[in-house]
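Minimal example, chain plus oxa(dethia)-CoA.
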Amino acid sequence: MSLRGVKIVGVGHYAPARVVTNHDLEAWLDTTDEWITTRTGMKRRHWTSDNEATSDLASAAAEAALVHAGLQAADVDCFIVATVTPDYYFPATACLVATRLGAREKPAFDIAIACSGFIYGLTIASGLIRSGVYRRVMLIGAESLSKILDKEDRSTAILFGDGAGAVILERSEEDSFLACDLGADGSRPELLYAHGSGSREPLDHAALDAKLHLIHMQGRETFKLAVNKMVESTGSVLSKANLNKADIAFLIPHQANKRIIDATARYLGLPEDKVVINIAEYGNTSAASIPMALSETVRAGRVKPGDLIVFVAFGGGLSWGAVAWRWAQ
Ligand code: UT7
């Protein structure tokens, strides 16, 4: 099969209606709006209601992307959902989403690589199109992290939010996918994980009481690694694409902490207006954060054909990665 090009033809995003402000959190946590704002840049986050799940958010974002692209679900050949908060262990959330959108019987699968989900997903989806397997792929990053949060733990409860972002990728003459740089290191999963529910430590009453199924993070250590790896991965993807930092029109990083993003931008020497930050509104939405930020930026009319976008992420795994993407017409 000969290599073809790929481009993004539609974007969409969705956040659940329930907004939880820093002041709301003050009501039950030993924290303050001032601490959260200065340490993270977050002001609000959106949390799902009891009867909402990840497939609901993913479907809403996907529908918005279809409208944006002027397409129907039946026009899409394959559906991928990046998430670590699926509706169920199985079946894959993507199966539920594709059927809900009206594309029953189309291939659909999930990828679970935490905050790097969109970067890995973009690489996989682009590979499927560039190698000629599919013509159009829907890639959705979607999370309901509030469902696996320890709401009594101030060190994590304040950080995470829910939402979804979707992109539709299509075969094209031009090629937007310039390079990727992916990495993973499973030697220290405990830095960021929800361990008490899988086959290693199946969920029993003791694990439930100890809240082992909820998110646990060693924040300070993760912070340092995040900055190092995001800087390194951005440098690596640029060099693979034979480009320089000065060529970047937009850096769209995973939104884990504004201080992580600011430090990354500082090391890269990027001015503020080239770095997309929406963390104040959504908090950390893991695999959803980059496609949500991309959708907002594109829909605001800020992205022009020919712009170089670098997507970069770091998160649980540990995992990280960057993709260099040339925005097409
Ligand atoms: O998405 C995947 C990747 N995720 C990340 O990269 C997240 C990385 N980590 C972080 O963003 C930051 O480490 C945090 C925001 C989680 C924490 O910020 P920090 O500046 O690293 O604070 P810290 O953990 O060093 O804690 C400093 C102090 C501690 O008190 P003592 O021990 O100095 O008395 C904490 O107990 O802040 C305390 N603290 C809080 N105080 C008020 C921790 N959480 C809170 C809170 N409100 N919510």
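The chain has two domains: 5-175, 178-326. The two ends are 25 Å apart (CA to CA).
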